[in-house]
Design brief:
By secondary structure, the protein is an alpha+beta fold. Helix content is about 50%, strand content about 10%.
Length: about 200
């Protein structure tokens, strides 16, 4: 099978998801670095591939494109245990990935962006506080779930864990204090110990 191509920014947790999944699934790929802070995802060339102007984006060998990190994760893991072993298992994985996109990532990732990449400006403090409040609610949900389960879906490591790990493990960069989240921290270590794990990297 010819290699897929990922277009992504290495500072992005959504893009890191693909690197981690591909490493653990043994999928070879080409990587094109897109600097979102420099507007490289808004050029006419990139918008021709993804009109939404966002990364990550995957190019298939047949010329088709697939956007949205969790959709790409699902494509990469299709047919593997990381996607769920049966109909309910796959839906359960999807359920947690929806939680990540709607209740987790918009708050934890945005807080990280405000603090680390915008320099925590004074005029964004109200927004930051709002994001952090909602992010802690998501972390509370995770802590309760992990008090009874080793992983998020089906008691087995899956792309749901990859999706949630991506921004949780750098939540401190958005001003979150994870010291009181014993179960979340234990889960982060379990993810780091999974076979084929690769850490998040800075831009190439």
């Amino acid at each position: 099978m010819s290699k897929v191509t990922f277009y992504g920014d290495s500072i992005s947790g959504n893009c890191y998801k693909l690197k981690l999944a591909a490493a653990q699934l043994g999928i070879d790929y080409d990587w094109h670095e897109i600097d979102i802070l420099a507007g490289e995802s808004r050029t006419p060339e990139f918008l021709a591939m993804n009109p939404n102007g966002r990364v990550p984006l995957m190019a298939l060998p047949d010329g088709r494109y697939l956007a949205e990190s969790n959709a790409i994760l699902s494509w990469l893991a299709d047919g593997s245990p990381l996607a769920g072993r049966d109909r309910y298992g796959r839906a359960n994985v999807l359920s947690w990935m929806c939680f990540e996109q709607y209740s987790h990532e918009p708050y934890i990732a945005t807080a990280r962006f405000i603090v680390r990449y915008l320099g925590n400006p004074e005029d964004r403090q109200r927004s930051l506080e709002s994001k952090q409040k909602a992010g802690y609610k998501a972390l509370d949900v995770m802590e309760r779930h992990l008090s009874e389960h080793g992983f998020f879906a089906n008691d087995a490591y899956s792309i749901a864990d990859i999706a949630l790990f991506a921004y949780t493990h750098v939540a401190d960069e958005g001003g979150y204090d994870l010291a009181g989240y014993e179960e979340v921290n234990a889960w982060l270590e379990r993810v780091r110990r999974t076979e084929g794990f690769v850490p998040m990297s800075d831009r190439h």
